């Protein structure tokens, strides 16, 4: 089946979504707000910055987030925000911990859970989530991919911009 001669709208093909030409991006989360970092990461993982974006295909690139342990939250979320995890399949086999406790135990998990909540659900969720790499320090094993720094694209609140 060839191109649709009656419709000039561009539709991406499977070759457009192939992993061959995926761009790598890096975000430094030190001192940045949690939701703003996660929103930018989800935006680039989905590929919404590209003109060939299609919501049903994996068009985006890989996002590396460093300094995940130094991300900031506003208000009283440090003590009030809770995370749930299931330890086994038995009744009552789950644990509740605050953001402060999770930051001490697994600081990468905070950003992973936040970005995962911003990605679409369904069969595309797992391949998209695999494009996120989060590290608690500045060292990461993806220097060979020469990631593009997009930390400056994190939007600021109007009061912070002044």
Automatic annotation (TrEMBL):
Belongs to the universal ribosomal protein uL13 family. InterPro entries: Ribosomal_uL13 (IPR005822), Ribosomal_uL13_bac-type (IPR005823), Ribosomal_uL13_sf (IPR036899). Keywords: Ribonucleoprotein, Ribosomal protein. It comes from Chlorella variabilis. The lineage of its organism: Eukaryota, Viridiplantae, Chlorophyta, core chlorophytes, Trebouxiophyceae. One of its GO terms (cellular component) is mitochondrial large ribosomal subunit. This is 50S ribosomal protein L13. Residues 140-162 are annotated as: Disordered. Signal peptide: none annotated. One of its GO terms (biological process) is translation. GO terms for molecular function: mRNA binding; structural constituent of ribosome. It comes from the Eukaryota.
């Amino acid at each position: 089946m060839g191109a649709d001669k009656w419709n000039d709208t561009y539709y991406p093909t499977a070759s457009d979504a192939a992993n061959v030409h995926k761009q790598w991006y890096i975000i430094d989360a030190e001192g940045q707000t949690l939701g703003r970092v996660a929103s930018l990461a989800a935006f680039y993982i989905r590929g919404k910055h590209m003109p060939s974006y299609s919501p049903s295909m994996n068009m985006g690139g890989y996002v590396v987030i460093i300094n995940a342990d130094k991300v900031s939250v506003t208000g009283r979320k440090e003590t009030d925000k809770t995370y749930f995890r299931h330890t086994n399949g038995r009744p009552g086999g789950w644990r509740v911990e605050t953001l402060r406790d999770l930051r001490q135990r697994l600081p990468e998990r905070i950003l992973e859970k936040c970005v995962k909540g911003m990605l679409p659900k369904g069969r595309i969720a797992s391949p998209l989530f695999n494009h996120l790499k989060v590290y608690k320090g500045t060292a990461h094993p993806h220097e060979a991919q020469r990631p593009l720094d997009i930390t400056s694209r994190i939007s600021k609140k109007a009061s912070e911009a002044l």
